[in-house]
Amino acid sequence: MSVRPEQRQANPVSSEHSSTSLYEMHRTALVDYANNILRDRARAEDVVQEAWERIQSVERTRIINEPLRYFYRIVQNLALDNRRIRKREAQRSGGTLTDISDKIADDTPKPDAIAAAREEFRIVIESMGELPERTRMALLLHSVEGLKLREIAERLELSVTYTHQLVAKGKMHCLRRLSRKRS
């Protein structure tokens, strides 16, 4: 049984890589926590991965006072959302998707944002070229093709846990290269 976030001590961490170190130190406990909600270990792995990505995004704009508690909260929210979505999908019977193209706002990026994104994309492509083949493949399948960790593990004939580690290592490598560019 996992410890709830309220029962853990979380120290304020202001370093750029606080979510990465928390992720590495508490990944198993976070996955166990998500699994208690979802009752599906593979989905729990995906939820923890998504939570880590979201925390990294938040860390770019502000310091998180209690990062571990925040990490658990995001995992909990994502797991509950995932469970609700699965429940809704299970209740549907042959429903069709509605056309949402009218509802999508025009959020065309500005030229300077496009230039910055191209530069970041170039760095990510270079950094992916530096990764071992299996890590690069796992990262591409997850980030580009959108496959779940369970599907990648089956395709690469690996465990879900090891696949999760490969994807995380690949993302960390790319993020480190990007952070060097920003410095």
From TrEMBL:
Residues 8-21 have a biased composition (Polar residues). It holds the Pfam family Sigma70_r2. Keywords: Sigma factor, Transcription, Transcription regulation. This is RNA polymerase sigma factor. It comes from the Bacteria. One of its GO terms (molecular function) is DNA binding. Transmembrane segments: none annotated. InterPro entries: RNA_pol_sigma-70-like (IPR039425), RNA_pol_sigma-70_dom (IPR014284), RNA_pol_sigma70_r2 (IPR007627), RNA_pol_sigma70_r4_t2 (IPR013249), RNA_pol_sigma_r2 (IPR013325), RNA_pol_sigma_r3/r4-like (IPR013324), WH-like_DNA-bd_sf (IPR036388). Residues 1-21 are annotated as: Disordered. Belongs to the sigma-70 factor family. ECF subfamily. GO terms for biological process: DNA-templated transcription initiation.
